[in-house]
Write a structure and sequence with these properties.
By secondary structure, the protein is mainly β. The chain has 1 helix and 37 strands. The longest helix is centred in the N-terminal third of the chain and has 13 residues. The chain is globular and about 80 Å long.
Length: about 425
């Protein structure tokens, strides 16, 4: 046992500065990146008296550290025929990484340094944030920051190209739970809307944090759900459906023909130009507002979910909801009113923080419910709309708070830890 400990300590000291002029009799193949994992594989070593493989990584090509388990004798490192390793702990901000494999036995043999360029580099920003939103057309993040010195909130802009905050910022009012905010698009540009306690909605250019205008709102909609169609219409439900016109700065109200006094969640279906409202006190009903081309309401209807329990989860860019009905988790299509059985684990309820989006013919759903688990990976399930079965499980590096699709990638913005946000992408 003492001999084994001594050997491991010797290896640890050896790899601190591991140069490329060591014996090179082990072949390490070119690493492959799949989503957020880098896959390494090498040819089996023929070293006599084989003990274990040490997988090493460096950012500079010289100062290597061992990244696999060479302490636990039951780990794969001690199996001569297992010649693959999945690296999920690499520095996510690194542009380049170097790998080396070492086989330890009666002698020590090494592979050459293999340079790998990180094709899935993530962007990180740190601070005391409440939430952030990716501005796709500007490659910037619009960030709501808590100002400890002023005991209030600021709207700031983080430039992903320079990795710095821009000097412009705006003070916004989130002084009580009745004040709220959301991001949306108008004429192709991302805007930030802040509903203040003075019953006024302040409009900011999200890319510059400069105020543009104010909008007239109903007298008091402090605790009511809201959304936007990203085409210049902002919707609030408070007994009536209020439609705030971004172009004119005025609003109209629509009284549903189907009675609904209260709604907790309001969603916009961009694919079919519809609004959905859910009353959490009555999970079994989804209200649909059919919209005209200008965003005004044409009609409304109500659908009752059979044997429902829990809050229906909206799948962005679609007419689909994830629902629990009669003890099963299913996908409900609000266009056809048909249920589709899934192989998602049945739970008694989901949370409104659950994120789901339709991209092409696949649904991507995150079930972390916005919970931050430092040092742990989260999971997205890929579900095909051909059979509504899980076709892939994808490890994420953060709990998503926003997901969107662009240029063949699924992007997600999430909290990496309590003071760090991460913008990452997955190849579709």
């Amino acid at each position: 046992m003492k001999t084994k400990i001594f050997c491991i300590l010797a290896v640890l000291l050896f790899v601190v500065s591991c140069k490329d002029d060591s014996p090179q009799t082990l072949t390490l193949n070119t690493p492959q990146q799949i989503d957020n994992s880098i896959i390494l594989n090498w040819e089996q070593s023929e070293v006599s008296g084989f003990q274990y493989y040490a997988v090493m990584r460096a950012s500079d090509g010289q100062n290597y550290t061992i990244i696999n388990d060479i302490v636990n004798p039951t780990s794969d490192a001690f199996r001569k025929n297992i010649t693959t390793f999945t690296d999920t702990s690499y520095p996510i901000e690194a542009d380049t990484l170097y790998y080396k494999i070492m086989a330890v036995g009666d002698e020590t043999v090494l592979s050459k340094n293999v340079l790998y360029r990180n094709v899935n580099k993530a962007a990180l920003l740190r601070g005391d944030f409440r939430q952030a939103y990716y501005i796709e057309e500007e490659n910037k993040l619009s960030v709501v920051v808590y100002d400890n010195s002023g005991y209030g909130y600021k709207l700031k802009v983080f430039d992903l190209q320079s990795g710095k905050f821009l000097p412009n910022e705006a003070t916004i009012n989130l002084s009580n739970s009745g004040c709220w905010y959301l991001w949306g698009k108008y004429n192709g540009k991302t805007e930030f809307y802040n509903y203040d306690s003075d019953w006024t909605m302040y409009v900011y250019d999200a890319a510059t944090a400069r105020q543009i205008t104010t909008l007239r709102t109903p007298s008091s909609v402090w605790y009511d759900p809201y959304t936007t169609n990203n085409k210049g219409m902002i919707y609030i439900y408070s007994y009536y459906l209020y439609c705030i016109n971004r172009a004119t700065g005025t609003y109209t109200q629509y009284q549903p023909t189907n009675q609904m006094y209260w709604a907790d969640y309001l969603y916009y279906n961009s694919k079919n130009n519809k609004l959905y409202a859910i009353d959490e006190s009555n999970h079994g009903r989804i209200f649909t507002f059919n919209l005209n081309a200008d965003g005004s309401v044409a009609s409304d209807e109500v659908f009752t979910i059979s044997g429902n329990s829990g809050t229906p989860i909206f799948i962005e860019n679609s007419s689909l909801f994830i629902v629990n009905t009669n003890g099963q988790t299913k996908v409900l299509d609000m266009n056809t009113k048909m249920y589709h059985t899934t192989d998602l684990t049945t739970t008694s309820y989901y949370y409104n923080d659950t994120k789901a989006i339709l991209a092409g013919d696949n649904i991507y759903i995150d079930l972390s419910n916005g919970i931050i688990s430092i040092g742990m990976y989260h999971t997205i399930y890929k579900i095909s709309t051909s059979d509504y079965k899980i076709s892939q499980t994808i490890a994420l590096r953060a709990a998503p708070i926003q997901m969107f699709v662009s240029n063949g990638y699924l992007y997600y913005l999430g909290q990496y830890d309590y003071n760090t946000y991460l913008l990452d992408k997955i190849k579709l």
